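Please produce the structure of this protein holding adenosine monophosphate.
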Amino acid sequence: MKNKKTGEYYCLGIESTADDFSIGISTFKGEILANIISAYIPEKGGIHPREAARHHAEVASQVLEEAFRKSGLKPRDLLVIAFSQGPGLGPCLRTGATVARALASYLNLPLVGVNHCIAHIEIGKLTKRVKDPVTLYVSGGNTIVSAFDLGRYRVFGETLDIALGNCLDSFAIEAGLRQSHGMPFGAMVEKLARKGKKLIPLPYTVKGMDTSFSGLLTAAVNLLKKGEHKLEDLCYSLQETAFSMVTEVTERALAHTEKKEVLLTGGVAANKRLQSMVEAIAEEHNAKFCVVPSEFAVDNGAMIAWTGVLAYKSGLVTPIEKSFVKLKWRLDEVEVPWVK
Ligand code: AMP
Ligand code: MG
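Below is the modeled complex.
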């Protein structure tokens, strides 16, 4: 309901597509009042969906409490509950959806299912004051070049197999790196790559507007196992090759659409080398270049809350019986009536 003191409306958003469980709260004007993120860090190896889901269930009430504390709001101040309905890992999505349904039923509030990829774009537009960008969204689970056209965000290019972040993470795991002090694998690869000097030839795969990273990963891991190259040089070469691929596709989307803004988002957007490559092509096309602040570039609840606001204001709600999770929900399947 409307807050009597502030005259504002609030939406709470729940994110749980993969390794992060997060709850954010946004006003209807786009002020982010809370964005609490709890990341699941596996003891060894990559993300196990059921283990990640167990983490989400364990931390949910604590994250929720923290979000209310940070925002200074009470559950009764909310007007809408939004949640990441897909795409993502089944057990993780279902945990977030269960929390969302429980809250909506208990508080008797409308529920809004949000497409996770669209939320990444919308939070970038909000926080960087961007209107109509070509977006390069690169994370642990997604690699998408997209831009708005005729009522929807269209996919101009995407990965045909694994995501860019997954490629970096898998290489780091093979190289025996261990996640410590919350430093993501991609950031470790970046740190090592800075000391690399030799560019080792690796498979560069762009098919039409799509990219493929699995051959690149296999080749890099094979070279790693041979032990003939320095790890720093392999990290450097892996980054140069993979980042050039996504930058090439982004540049072609920019040339084709003639948009005047480029937005870089997703966990991999934190990478300085990738930022400089994408910035260079933006400059060449006289487009403004923006990177989403890291708190909102990784998976986060604030982006779900804000996209929930946009959808709800356009009259979109998700009845409980239609709130099942959609593991492979593409962003180009979604009408976005709030974008003109
Ligand atoms: P997300 O899926 O959006 O939560 O982002 C997580 C992904 O971002 C993982 O694949 C991380 O390894 C990657 N990542 C985080 N920081 C960096 C960095 N500095 N360079 C490259 N990748 C990164
Ligand atoms: Mg994540």
